[in-house]
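Notes, p. 3: input format for complexes.
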Amino acid sequence: MIDSTELATPLSRHPARPDHPLISIVAPCYNEVDSVGAFVETVKKSLAGGDFGVELVFVDDGSKDGTRNRLEAFADAEPNIRVVSLSRNFGKEAALTAGLDHARGDAIVVIDVDLQDPPELILEFIGKWREGYDVVYATREDRQSDTFAKRFTAEGFYRLFNKISAIKIPENTGDFRLMDRRVVETVKTLPERSRFMKGLFAWVGYQAIGIPYARPTRVAGTTKFNFWRLWNFALDGFVSFSTVPLKVWSYFGGVVAFLSFIYAAIIIGITLISGRSVPGYASLATLILFFGSVQIVSVGVLGEYISRLFVEVKRRPVYIVDEVYSGKAGTTGESV
Ligand code: UDP
Ligand code: MG
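Output follows (336 residues plus magnesium ion):
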């Protein structure tokens, strides 16, 4: 007979995890020469003595500051470190995609290399994964390390995104997470070029759970995301996961047309009653300017979608690998 409590817990259906799993740590790096040393140390310290194997997959995203050499020196010293070097800077989303493609673990952890994603949490991730969750993500409970402007805009972004997108992404959650192999395999089948990873991770679904943490400040270096890059990142998210910005204009136009008819009727009425023609150079000019700009904005929104369609149909690869380096013995020259 089926135990009813077993049916009530959704996790009971999941296959058992391997006794000695391999955990892949995927870390994209762009000009992080001063962070990688501390990162490797902390990861080693946090995961020492666990009953699992660990491989570190660094993706050098076209760094210009010697990050690649530093990473390859680590790969020489440690057998479980691999460095996937991209041929130029492709951006964090592409670097993450490359890392997921090269990870071999039973579970894959995606993490920033600047220690803003504390590696100590990985043990908790693994614990939850062993309980049966397929995705364990870290939620920033305390964003004190971010500037007020960043917190404010991030909050607005999540709120708007979750309102206009059918796929909900957890608020205050970055890419830092553990994913089961089958989740990563599913993400890998998604063919799009514009890779808003947080959205893709949410889109594939599976059993997920969040773990709260306080986000520390960077260990070294500075953020790679200035305002302009973040703005484009947010646009990518909206355009990739919602068609609301595209469709809203028909409704806006409909409402304005309706209001215009009412306004026209009022003017005609007033003219018939008082025989006075409506003065109004200023109001006319304002209206023309207003609707002119609304039209330009709506054409701009079309442009956002069309430019992404253009990128998609060209079907260029998301990233190009220059070399996969796994220490002096085992390097493969590879291109994707
Ligand atoms: N990163 C990358 N390619 C880029 C920009 C950033 O691989 O073009 C990496 C970076 O090295 C870091 C992670 O993405 O490991 C997060 O970047 P950052 O810390 O600058 O972002 P923030 O934490 O400020 O959002
Ligand atoms: Mg950071």
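The first helix runs from residue 4 to 8.
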